[in-house]
Write a structure and sequence with these properties.
Helix content: 40-55%
Largest sheet: 8 strands, parallel, barrel
CATH class of the largest domain: Alpha Beta
Structural class: alpha/beta
Strand order of the largest sheet: 3-4-6-7-8-9-10-11
Number of domains: 2
Number of helices: 15
Number of strands: 11
Oligomer: single chain
Length: 321
């Protein structure tokens, strides 16, 4: 095991390792989270849930709070623009079994920002502190913050936001080491990430551009207690064990795991929705395969679980599936 891998404690929650699955809308649902826990993630984060939707008792959003035993410890991410609504959402998430409540203050998506949530909260640090404090006082589990180093490149906001989070009772802060305006492009600002680590005593979790052991080590060298992996885990839930020093997964392993993901999606959402959700990430799963484009097209056209299994069986020995 590589020397930067160790257990991570967030509040009272003991995570078996400091490698964390990032929350990703439409991707990090229960079936995928379970695969990542089995693949070595010490903590998995659910796709973000709207606090406003929970307030009006949206059944779709309430279902997103469900937690399965095989995915714990789990962090449930919520987003919203006012303290009272966030406090209510935090309570509901804890009641549903979340081990940690995470508040999103870094998402640059316009729909989220129009609701006064996501990265727009970075413009109002005092308000952000009130929102964090409201969540902390409403639950008995740890509350964390996920934000970014700045709104635009060249700004210095990260250390301030980390101090506000700590002063408001947050147990840890995840810092995406890019500006909100950069979304996912450009190299992470490791110097800014290091400044965040030095600003507070609570754990800082580094995020952004971590795709292999080299980039993971660079993030840890800034002083981070943990790292968060997002897009590099899509199509490769094994990445956590790979970062720990295990051998990369083979093509056959990926096919077997993708079939399992599709099957679990169908069980959870029904055939039509389950198949469609699986199609969102199929390009990641078949990347690097011979005739990957044709294979992806065949899977995207599939309308049933039986069709998916048939296509995958042509790629891999049917007996192994």
């Amino acid at each position: 095991m590589r020397d930067f891998i160790r257990p991570l404690k967030i509040g009272a929650v003991e995570c078996p390792s400091n490698l964390i699955l990032a929350p990703m809308a439409g991707i990090t649902d229960a079936p995928f989270r379970i695969l990542c826990r089995e693949g070595g993630a010490g903590l998995v984060c659910a796709e973000m849930v709207s606090a406003n939707a929970l307030k009006v008792e949206s059944q779709k959003s309430l279902k997103m709070l469900r937690v399965n035993a095989g995915e714990r410890p789990l962090s449930m991410q919520i987003f919203g623009g006012d303290a009272q609504t966030i406090a209510l959402a935090a309570k509901l998430a804890q009641q549903s079994g979340a081990d940690i409540i995470d508040i999103n203050a870094g998402c640059p998506v316009k729909k989220v920002n129009k609701a006064g949530a996501g990265c727009v909260l970075m413009k109002e640090p005092a308000k952000l502190g009130q929102i964090i404090a409201a969540a902390v006082t409403s639950v008995s589990v740890p509350v964390t913050l996920k934000t970014r180093i700045s709104l635009t490149r060249g700004e210095v906001l990260g250390p301030l936001l980390c101090r506000i989070a700590q002063d408001s009772g947050a147990a840890a802060v995840t810092i995406h080491a890019r500006a909100a305006a950069d979304v996912h492009s450009g190299p992470p600002d490791l110097k800014a990430l290091e400044d965040c680590c030095k600003a507070v005593s609570i754990p800082i979790i580094g995020n952004g551009g971590i795709v292999d052991a080299k980039s993971a080590r660079a993030a840890f060298e800034t002083g981070c207690a943990g790292i968060m992996i997002g897009r590099a885990a899509v199509g490769n839930p094994f990445i956590f064990s790979q970062l720990a020093g295990c051998a990369p997964a083979g093509a056959r392993d990926k096919i077997i795991l993708f079939r399992r993901l599709v099957e679990e999606n169908v069980k959870l959402y029904g055939q039509r929705t389950g198949i469609n959700r699986s199609k969102k990430t199929v390009g990641y799963w078949v990347r690097g395969f011979e005739n990957a484009a044709a294979l992806r097209e065949s899977l995207v056209r599939a309308q049933s679980l039986a069709e998916v299994i048939s296509i995958l069986s042509e790629v891999c020995n049917p007996k192994s599936l």
